[in-house]
Amino acid sequence: MHHVILGAGPAGVIAAETIRKHAPADTITLVGDEGEPPYSRMAIPYLLIGNVKEAGTYLRKSLTHYTDLRIDQVAGRATTVDTQARTVTLDNGKTLKFDKLLIATGSHPVRPPIPGMDLPGVHPCWTLEDARAIAALAQPGARVLQMGAGFIGCIIMEALAARGVELSVVEMGDRMVPRMMGPTAGGMIRDWCEKKGVKVYTGTKVEAIEAATSPAAGLRVRLSSGQTVEADLVISATGVRPAIGFLKDSGITCLQGVLTDEHLQTNVPGIYAAGDCAEAFDKVSGKTIVSAIQPNAAEQARVAALNMVGQRADLKGVTQINVLDTLGLISTSFGNWEGVPGGEHAELTDKAGGRHLSLQFKDDVMVGCNSVGWTEHVGVMRGLVEGQVKLGEWKERLMHDPTKLMDAYLASAQGQGQWAGAGDERRR
Question: What is the per-residue DSSP string for 338-373?
Fold first, then answer.
């Protein structure tokens, strides 16, 4: 049996290891499109900060790890998949025949259609190659402008601030982290960043990037507000999308991502998907979503791999969880943080204290929440949302006092067999 895995990120590596554990005689080919050992993109900010060296980003520390497991590594990028012939064609012209295929190609940065994106000094922050270019320019005192203040953008911003640059951030949304936070919470994060010395432009677009009059003067960035910002480095962090363009006309169903069932199998038998490129069912929202976080990638890879070797496994659900540290301010987002039609919500805000808590309900179930500066019982918030715990009378109590989350969890989840995790948190 030949298993071909497209993508050498966390999902691809975990899937390959899982297959090898359960199918010691099968052939495994891991296809990666970068000239690096498999690494974690989430480690790149720590590389920029200086907390780790490049080797610290590698997913496995032994350079012989894949050889030892008899996992064949192939360099290349998939260009087409022929589901009838059961082949994958790579950009180097090589063709791989497979019995089972896992699509774990992740995502790629969105390139905004802005004049000047090809100028020297303009970079995404997505690969180790990008990180090397950014590190060379983002020296202490350098003028850096970052486009995008979403989840990934805020993580990059943290690393840049630690390098001692003069930082400006431009976000086209009306607040920071607009896909994770409401207006109040996003505004509080912006206020916090500006107090830390970051210049933040919200509700603003970059209209053009131009070379300054002399190479030593760097770049001039024109904003939709009419302002011009000078920069030595411009970083594009305007979002990502699933890397699935090569599946066009393949017959594999794709919506936002590659559509999968509870076994992570696509509409084509024997072809699976996992990680940031996969679209799976979320029991909280009741719809299929792409949830591009590493814990999801790891679990999806494990489930897909087990099914690929004939061991039935089901994905229990997709986790919608974001925990963000923005220059020392912790914020969280779980589930349907924006609320649902016909639902209710409770909100508590202490702007002076830098704390905000918002809970969203449908009937007596908490379907989403977010918080800023509120680190108590983060595990309980997640447990209530993902466990779809029926709160009963505690729903009204939380409407009046959202801080009673632990009491509500212990009282409501205990009878539903879901309370062990809260007990562990209480002991911590």
Answer: T--TT-EEEEEEETTTTEEEEEEEETTEEEEEEEES
Residue among 342, 385, 337, 375 nearest 358 (CA): 337
Domain boundaries, the chain: 2-108+241-308, 122-238, 328-427
- Let me know: does 382 contact 365? Beta carbons within 8 Å: no
Question: Cα separation of 138 and 267, whole Å?
Answer: 46
Report the distance separating Cα 83 and Cα 278, nearest Å: 18
Q: What is residue 194's three-state secondary structure?
A: helix
Cα 169 from Cα 149, distance rounded (Å): 7
The span from the CA of 189 to the CA of 177, in Å, is 8
Beginning with the edge strand found earlier in the chain, give each strand of the sheet holding 228-231 in spatial order.
Answer: 206-211, 219-223, 228-231
Bridge partner residues of 255 (DSSP): none
Domain 328-427, CATH among 1.10.3080.10, 3.30.390.30, 2.60.120.10, 3.40.50.300: 3.30.390.30
The DSSP secondary-structure symbol of 351 reads T
Helix 405-413 / helix 420-427 crossing angle, nearest 10 deg = 140
State the Cα–Cα distance between residues 248 and 300, nearest whole angstrom. 23
Q: What are phi and psi of 339, to 5 degrees?
A: 90, 175
Query: Bridge-partner residues for 329, per DSSP?
Result: 326
pLDDT of the chain, 428 residues: tens digit per residue = 999 999 999 999 999 999 999 999 999 999 999 999 999 999 999 999 999 999 999 999 998 999 999 999 999 999 999 999 999 999 999 999 999 999 999 999 999 999 999 999 999 999 999 999 999 999 999 999 999 999 989 999 999 999 999 999 999 999 999 989 999 999 999 999 999 999 999 999 999 999 987 766 799 999 999 999 999 999 999 999 999 999 999 999 999 999 999 999 999 999 999 999 999 988 777 789 898 888 899 999 999 999 999 999 999 878 778 899 999 999 999 989 999 999 999 999 998 899 999 999 999 999 999 999 988 888 899 899 988 899 999 999 999 999 999 999 999 886 665 544 444 443 33
Query: How many angstroms separate the CA atoms of 370 and 387, rounded?
Result: 16
How far, in Å, CA of 263 to CA of 270, rounded? Answer: 11
